[in-house]
Amino acid sequence: MRVGILGSGLMGGKLGTLFARAGHEVVFSYARTERKLKRLARAAKGKAHAGTPREAVQQADAVLLAVHWSRTRDVLNQTGDLSGKVIVTCSLPMNADNTALVVAHTSSGAEELAKLIPKGRIVSAFNTVPSEVLFGVYEAKRKASRPSLVYCGDDTSGKAVAVELIRDVGFDPVDAGPLQIARYTEPFALLVAQLAYEGEGGPELAYRFERFGK
Q1: What is residue 93's three-state secondary structure?
Q2: pTM of structure
Q3: Up-side HSE of residue 210: CA atoms within 13 Å toward CB?
Q4: pLDDT tens for each residue of 179-204
């Protein structure tokens, strides 16, 4: 699968690296410097290289949107037409100092993104785990018990693409339902962040849902 990374910071850089190590072709784009993009591509090994946002989405089977909410329109202005593209977003609609959601209750960041890209196939995923846990989860992915990762979206085939990427990174995908459910998963991401960064034990935190009974 060819995966374009829009936003090569903590989340985008690490997920892009893991996608490449899992065998996907990855294009890193949209970082502070081109040097950083090239460094990420070299470190990821496999089929990874640096490019512009437009180059990242061309021929992409999936696009990972991993920019700060305030940069969303800027990066989308550089990609060109995203109609029909599977866009997996891990961007939370946070304010400038990352202390609160600027979209909540009656909508979500994922739903607002869908309005900006009306013909895009939007899936919300990867925003409910800290970036610090990603490499550890990937290294342990052959274990029988994997941590959970919730995702949601309205496009069935787009969700299937997201499921493949979620599993390749080492998580057990949990379908939370339609894109509207991002109204719940985005605040849940803040709970995970509170436990990871303010609680004891450090940020290497993941979660798992278990079913009991018949």
Answers
A1: coil
A2: 0.96
A3: 5
A4: 999 999 999 999 999 999 999 989 99
